[in-house]
Fold these 2 entries.
Entry 1:
Amino acid sequence: MPFPIDHDMHCHSCLSSCSSDPAQSAQAILDHAKAHGYTLQCITDHLWDNLVPGASGWYAPQDVEHVKKNLPLPKDDQVRMVFGCETEFLGGSRLGLDPRHYDDFDFIVIPPNHFHMKNFVRPDTYDTEEKIADLFVRRLEEISNLDLPWRKVGIAHMVCGLIFKEGDQYRVYELIDEARFRAVMRKFARLGAGIEINLSSFWPDWKAHEDAMLRLYRLAKEEGCKFYLASDAHHPRELELVPGLAPGVVEALGLTEADRFILE
Ligand SMILES: [Zn+2]
Ligand SMILES: [Zn+2]
């Protein structure tokens, strides 16, 4: 069976500061999902938990109470609406979500590469493609050492232009150490985490960099990882990224239904 294009497990509502778009309501997100025959739609607003000290100025207002303003999510008998979050990871054991709040979310997206947040997520001494590639793998390794409810955890945007905005993201992907990357993907597969195919990262011209864009996904697949689709939409038009781009990416990766991450 083909890999189903019937879900979007990472998207933002108007509650995320980088959206603030009144048109990006939970109901509008559900309406889009329903129109495309989805079975599952997750809303994952940016989150820094009020129980965790050290929020940046940008994150501070985006706490648990804030993202819960979307609750209760609109219900539908065709689309399962899931309340999630996209938290933050600063390295070591510094996650932007406290274990006391794990049960408040049905899906937890962890970004390993929000490296545009200099001197918060990325020390600015990491300033070359080689150093960024090393930092990225280390962050994945550190995330894999956390004690998380793994079966409802997604590793966000494995490729993402934010990894090195002032440099060459494609070069970074090529430089990532294969043995270390394979080992950490094997661990995510064993733990049961999902690996995100973030279609925002594939827009507009992934085919011009196909080998670099797909390298990490191919390695993850070989190590047994399961995958889910995500628009990472902040505005209604971006919800179209899943139906628009996912079929081509899924085909290029040779994914089938057996490769799909299932949220219990
Ligand atoms: Zn992100
Ligand atoms: Zn996001």
Entry 2:
Amino acid sequence: MNATASVDLAGLDMSDLALWREGPPHELFAHLRREAPMHFSALGDFEHERGFWSVVRHEDIAAVGRDHETFSSARSIVLVDKLSWDPAVPDPMDLAQHMMITTDPPRHDRMKALVQRAFTPKRALEHTERMREIIHLVFDRALERHPDGKIDLVQDVGQYVPAMVIGEMLGCPREDAEQLVDWTNRTTAFEDPRLVPDLGEIMRALEEFIPYVNTMIESRRVSPQDDLTSALIEAKIDGDHLSHEEILMFFFLLMVAGNDSTRAVFTSGMKNLLEDEEQMQLVRSGAVPLEDVVEEFVRFNPAFAYMRRTATKDVELHGQQIKAGDKLALWYVSGNRDETVFDDPNRFDVRRDTSASQGFGAGLARLELRLWIEIALERFPDLTLDGESDRLASTFLNQYRSIPVSLLG
Ligand code: HEM
């Protein structure tokens, strides 16, 4: 009998971390896709918060994601509205309101246009040599620290490549990558007590981050550079410059979105390849273009398990009454395994057509991932897994905390 046949749908909380220990609960999502395509969960770990609807079918995720008038990004893109319900304790979610990702069109589209030029495939290509250099450097450093080649793919390599790539685009010196990684980990991994032991940790990280960016902004006001921070300072929307908070939080968004996403996709995709000899052979032999490998990496392990929307008006979906103000989670981890769109969706297969895959981002990441896989496989023909992996505790960040590998076999 199917393990999910007796699921208590009324009591099911898809945000319960216990369901996510081994990664996304794919069987449960399959059950919801069949039996309850619009399912309501309480947000059990956050007692002050209103619950949320799970959007799990591929076509519904696409439709809700497109309809920003009915389903707004503006409140928040994670399920919690607030982290602090004590008025005496500052809440980092207040600052998060200034990010482009929590803005709707038309302002959203104007903000996006400001940075989009930097992320076109053509502009990304201009960064090829720099990205190659960074990837080699990060592997070199990992080998210097661990001459026997026994490293952690996430801790020693995964974290640093995206941080250096996006950090340099923002105008940060390469040596600051470690700092950017630290701030990213201490602010976004808010469900994992190993990284964020309490809410104060997020504020402490922000109290270091904010003066760092302020100093960069001040120096660029005096002498602009050819970097994204200068571009944000100079940019105007409808004749007005961005507010200080908007510049600050744009920087923050680019830092965390650039960091968390690409490292998650690279490290979990490599793990899948290393676990499957046939797939690895297909990739190493060049039988499948690396562009397709990247797409299957993202389909199988989207970097973000979901993005949230908030209903702006009452609306009915699959017979359920969604009220204005209700939260909806667009579960990319479910849409990308929808059996009506992908054959045998739980099979990792670099040969498949992934054109319908959901949950992808910038052109920069596609190129970065392709180069990263290419260099890893070329430099390390004997690369193998070397121990137990460990998941990051999160229902939002779909990633590993640790993947021990042996670079030298
Ligand atoms: C494999 C890599 C990546 C994945 C899977 C990914 C995924 C996503 C997803 C799912 C969203 C949310 C869209 C929504 O709410 O509907 C998003 C937004 C965003 N991502 Fe990425 N992303 C990746 C790489 C990057 C990189 C390298 C950057 C650059 C720094 C970046 C910057 C952003 C920004 C700025 C937004 C907000 C866009 C907006 O508001 O329109 N992402 N990304």
